[in-house]
Amino acid sequence: MDPDSLRDALTAYAAAIRADCRADPGGGGELVLAPRFRALLDSMVGPLGPRVLAEYAKPGIGRPDLAFARPGEPARAFVELKPPGAALDPARLRGHDADQFRRFRELPLWGYCNFHTIRLFRRAEPADQAVILPAAALD
What we know:
- By secondary structure, the protein is α+β, with helices and mostly antiparallel strands.
- It has helices at about 5-25, 30-45, 95-105, and strands at about 50-55, 65-70, 75-80, 110-115, 115-120, 125-130.
- The protein has a six-stranded mixed beta sheet, with helices on one face.
């Protein structure tokens, strides 16, 4: 994706997230916002990249919100979405999120994302972190 197209995609994504958050009385929960993030990923990987699949069931582990798979192959990378502003640090996770982290750390490559930042893991080990766009862009 060329830089102008990427800028346009990120601008449209941020505007759509802001609009969805204003329209949702709950403040834009992950289920409301997930289609926007998936569309952004689809536009970024393009037709030759892996497919972005929603709610990918992994027996014994759970259902990560998104998965990346090439046709005819199993999914190899996963993303779990959390509401904007949610903590992505495993040490700060509680309840359902902590249980989910314990299960998902069995995945070979996965990430936690709060729609503006993604934290990547290789199994339980932190691998990298990337800011998709500043959190203020979603306010």
